[in-house]
Fold:
Amino acid sequence: MTVLSPYRSVQRVYFDDLDALNILHNVRYMLFIERARGDLYNALGFRWDDDVDVNPDKWQVVAEHSIRYLSPFRGEGEVLVELTPVKLGNSSLIIDARVRSTHGDIVYAEGSSRLVRLDPATNRPCPWSDRFRKAMTPLVRAPA
Structure:
């Protein structure tokens, strides 16, 4: 399967994702972005249920999140999350995200996440594996 950039993942919005005003709660946007990132990793062959010896790159943490809310999403339905890796460093990865309508004409939020790969023994930053780098590099685009 060919994975394209931006990577697109449809996320379902349920009643319990909404606030008292029937608007998608602000913290859910980051949850949907994180779920889409999991979908991206799975599409690239990096499964979370694999042992760390098989998938050492799963030993990563979020170093930073930023998000801007541009338009409210109201009610239940679906949103489209677009992920664009913009910088693959030695031990870090920056992925930009947009949460938009499934037809694409409304952008509800945009943000960025910086992830850092850790050595499982020391919990210190360490390089991404060659396998991860080979899979992720073709998806990296300069920020818009």
